[in-house]
Amino acid sequence: MKYSAIERALGIPQNTLEKDKSASGKALKKIINTFPWIVDVADKKYDKKEAKRIMMKNAVDKIVDQS
To answer: Above pLDDT 90, what percent of the chain?
Structure first.
């Protein structure tokens, strides 16, 4: 996923992720790298029902991929 799409979903200024070298910027990149579906949750305006659906779909997809 491109930084621009992530920044748009998170509602942060353009080029923030690319330029940010702070500890919080690095932590955010690690979270997104570990849980890329979290950007989809942000794109859905953090709706709890959508967040659960997205998380469960991701979990099922991971289980199916391992079979």
So the answer is: 90
